[in-house]
Amino acid sequence: METAIKNTKTFFFAILLNIIKYATLLLFGFACVLPLVSCFITALKTEEEYKSTNVMTLPENFFNFDNFVKAFTTANMGRAFLNSLIVMLVVLVISVIVGTQLAFVLTRFTFPGNTLIRNLYLFASLLPSVAMQVTVYNIMSSLGFVNHLYGYIIMMCGTDVISIYIFIQFMENISVSLDESAIIDGASYWKIYWQILLPLLKPAVITACILKGVGVYNEYYCANLYLQNKNLHTVATSLYTFVGPMGSQYNLICAGVIISFLPALIVFLLCQKQIYSGITAGAVKG
């Protein structure tokens, strides 16, 4: 009898834990989706509707896409998308090439200062970027890099500590015997890096590109500081076209947010298998 009562209590306790678990998941899921739903509802409202209703009041017309057209044209988002795409592609290519080559040197060669270089990169990640912006702006200004897309790209290609350490950790788990076998066969160090190690670093490259790409695409502070020309605006800065001292047009801002969100969503849906595999493989290394 006591055993049956004990089993019944255990059963109900397990059910209670499952209820709490799924209720918590639903609560956090709702909290994550609510801002997107509110943003989408606001983007469909006219100026009069937005001023006279709250954020969760449904719009009268769910097929009103005037705000999307106005946001895209007024904020010159076509040009902003092109600028962001150019910056992101160039920065990712340069960061991957420099980061993988640096990881190759630090993991495959022993020389005085190897540990010092690793520690310096770690020290650089501890410095707050905002605290260094006065010095960085003076350097950018003296070199003529302000209000030039190439100057912003060069600055964004700077120290990428997270990606470098991802490459280092991943490359340390690749056997050195591959290098030795290639050297015996007459391969140069460049050939070992380019034809053997770099293809094996594909999961790490995908992981680093995700982290760096999201950061570059959403970057606002430096883009607003160094790209003040309207023709050089990125997606993040173009949304601030509708923010001014006389008030903000949040229905147009929300429409612009939805537009800027769509390319990232499409890329994620098309490449989610590669993204998941890259993050998973990069997480278990080391």
| N-end to C-end Cα span | 52 Å
State the strand order across the main sheet.
Answer: 1-2
Largest sheet: 2 strands, antiparallel
- The proportion of strand residues reads under 5%
The helix tally amounts to 14
Instruction: Briefly note the structural class of the backbone.
Output: mainly alpha
Low-confidence stretches: 282-286
Q: Helicity level, as a percent range?
A: over 70%
Mean pLDDT: 85
The sequence of SSEs as H and E is: HHHHHHHHHHHHHEEH
Shape: flat
Gyration radius over CA: 25 Å
Strand tally, please?
2
Structural account:
The chain has 286 residues and is an all-alpha fold. It is 75% helix and 1% strand. It is built from 14 helices and 2 strands, in the order αααααααααααααββα. It has helices spanning 2-43, 47-52, 66-74, 77-108, 114-126, 133-142, 149-156, 161-172, 176-184, 189-200, 202-218, 221-226, 235-238, 250-284, and strands at 243-244, 247-248. Strands 1-2 form a two-stranded antiparallel ribbon. β1 (243-244) and β2 (247-248) form a beta hairpin. α1 packs across α14, α3 (66-74) crosses α14 and α8 (161-172) runs antiparallel to α11. The longest helix is centred in the first third of the chain and has 42 residues, at 2-43. It is flat, with a radius of gyration of 25 Å. The model is unreliable at 282-286 (pLDDT under 50).
